[in-house]
Amino acid sequence: MTLSLPKNYIYExxxxxxxxxxxxxxxxxxxxxxxxxxxxxxxxxxxxxxxxCTSCMDCDFFxxxxxxxxxxxxxxxxxxxxxxxxxxxxRYFLPHSRPNFRTYLIERMSGEEIKILHSWAEMTPAEEVCxxxxxxxxxxxxxxxxxxxxxxxxxxxxYCCGEMYFRMGLFEQVRAVARKLQNYFQALAPSKVTxxxxxxxxxxxxxxxxxxxxxxxxxxxxxxLLKRRFSTGELGIQNPLGxxxxxxxxxxxxxxGSEYMNLPRExxxxxxxxxxxxxxxxxxxxxxxxxxxxxxxxxxxxxxxxRESVKILRExxxxxxxxxxxxxxxxxxxxxxxxxxxxxxxxxxxxxxLLGAAMGEDVRASxxxxxxxxxxxxxxxxxxxxxxxxxLEPPRITPxxxxxxxxxxL
Length: 410
Fold this sequence. Notes:
alpha/beta, Rossmann fold, four-stranded parallel sheet, 9 strands
């Protein structure tokens, strides 16, 4: 069965001008090469774009004809993965593999963090719930702030939104995730769900419904919630940051337009920060590095992912920023891991940490040494398979609702 995308590549409107690849902040191809490569992609001929693309989807916004070239790339990846499977080293990053890089972090958590995760696994119905997303599950102390007070957080790694599968072109897995999440939320029966992740927000509002999920609840991004709480005076600033901060944008923020991309900037301004823009931001942002592993040929090569993450740190340093703000916990993980290799860049903080500090909270180093843990986890679990050409099939995703088996006991 051939599965279509929420946005499909439109062959008829593409005139092979190559502007999408010419302006791509990763490829930056000369005009003649860009024209040749988009032609190769259209005709199913191998293109180096398939090897280098980070699926940040910037190209969709550069295309003058709204042809959605990113979706053509995802379709070609889907064809490659369906024919040849995934390289063995990809297993450590697949959301439903056990173990994976997230369970590696959970196995090294404090008792306090494990207690939080057990509370999030609660399955009793609730009128309103907050869906954390997989990366917040690996950074649970981020949620211990009055900015999120009153939210009933629910979720486990078993109920991943499937974003990584989507960005890899693994559409069968996305459909399986859609079935599983529909069952999960039918059990919880909420009327409203707040999502602590822009990628998850896009998956729930656009992708998963396209792949068969039927959600009958209101969906809100946590950034919208935070802006409302500050605007109404429910939250206030005690200690303005007074710091130059660069923002690492989520790959999905641009899908919701300028108003959405302004939200983290407005929140940081409220917190007293001086927001500076990096060379690549907003619709022309660079992926934090995880996307460099999505191609079938790279299959989460840790060396290539680290190289792309270091680009962000260097660009932030060049901007004169004293810190980097992220509003995606996955970006937080990637940039803190890259800081193990490149220590000259400014430190990276989640926007919840920065807002908490501005509100006068005693913000601990809430992620501890997560960067080093991720770095050593990759060395331990991926480097032994780095040169292997063996392939694997993605794990089977059942629609069943079950208690998480990966959580350590209290």
